Amino acid sequence: MDxxxxxxxxxxxxxxxxxxxxxxxxxRDALRESGLDFEITYVLDGRYPDVLGExxxxxHDGEQLRVIALSRSFGEATAIMVGFNHSRGEWILxxxxxxxxxxxxxxxxxxxxxxxxxxxxxxxxxxxSRFNRLQAAGFHFFLNRITGLRFHDMGCGARAFKRRVLEExxxxxxxxxxxxxxxxxQGFRVREIDIxxxxxxxHKRLYGFGVYLxxxxxMLSVFFLTKxxxxxxxxxxxxxSAVFALGAALVVYLVADRFLxxxxxxxxxxxxxxxxxxxxxxxxxxxxxxxxxxxFSHAKDIKDYTIDEIIN
Length: 312
Hints:
By secondary structure, the chain is an alpha/beta fold. It is built from 10 helices and 7 strands. It has helices spanning about 20-35, 50-60, 75-85, 105-110, 130-145, 165-170, 180-185, 210-230, 230-260, 270-300; strands at about 5-15, 40-45, 65-70, 90-95, 120-125, 160, 190-195. The longest helix is centred in the C-terminal third of the chain and has 30 residues, at about 230-260.
């Protein structure tokens, strides 16, 4: 590939993938319709010999793409960051390695970057089962409540964003799913655009209990990152104060009971619980104080804003 392309498409290959050649050709044709120069990079998150073999056949056929194979699985967020670090385009496009959207919507997704910094695809209209839609509705109900934002399809892997988004936000763990939320928090202009859902994405999706638990923990992680990253004392202080107050109230009750009703404290398990709550509350509060000290000492290195433009 000669010259710097405008668009770098990154396709992370994780546990789920469809026919590589067919999907690649459909993505390639859709990118050509955008009228922009582009490059395509596949990042294999682990060992996928079948996928690697098909990609080598495409390279042998003269297709212009880059393939990066990781030594083992590090997660989709890491795969995206690896692809980003090897990309050259000013606009970045992440695409799922399986049929999730109709590739015909990709030019629309890219065109959205002319007015926004981040454009997330929303599969709409939804053609999958009512069960899938109920799961998605429940997930986004809680996500929107704890973030104060309004998103409809965090599960869609098709997203377009300007390069500076990932230059200022480092992904790790499973945060790739919440990248629009993190980008909005950083001050970027984020928008969802409706893209037709692929008919092959309409199958019923039922996950194991562990997956739902991880999603819940991910949401709590995002909640903390978006609300209390620079204000840990507000979170731990409130939580610690509540626990301490509960323990203190129990102590007052036990002391009053001791003097008013002459009840012995030596054989009351409630005294042990109250003491534990008081100590635990102080410890939680102390965690918030330590967090505040760390934030204060590193505040000059933390950038949580984005400048849109500087005039004159």
